[in-house]
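User: Fold this; tokens only.

Assistant: Input:
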Amino acid sequence: MGMSYKRLLLTLPFLASLITLLVLSYATSWFNIVENAFSDLGGIRNGLISVVFNGLVSSTGCLLILYSTLVFQELRFEYRLTLGLAGYSLTLIGVYPEDYGRLHFYVSLVFFLLGISYMVLHVAEHTIAGYAIAALGLLNFIPWSLHFALSEPRGAAIPELISLLSLLITLAYDAGRLNSS
């Protein structure tokens, strides 16, 4: 199987999750990408929307755990460990929706920090691609810093989306490096 097909096939579930998240947010009349965080969709008061959102988040987290333990076995241990822990914390975001207050905030923070760490760890490869992935991870601190320090944007959805897209790019890069089997 060619590298681009493998990359596409292995990242398709995560791309589908991201597309579903965007469709769900678009279909929710009150959601505003500048004013809200994606986790607002998971509030229990939102009925079916919260069930779909929290199920999506939890199942995507489980998928990250499976990938870190089964699919990405060829990758460095620290990548797999960080990705597995990120998957676990993503699962917890769905288990403890925003109604859980600080607990939800902490598991969300851990997820995004682990996602950024996963990218930054690529600096150890000492390759141009590794440095680029690490730089992409570090660049994620800009929208998060603006959000937390200046409340720009007011909601966290834009920094979340930037981090999720960056993580998807990194997953696609790593998936494309796996040997065919």
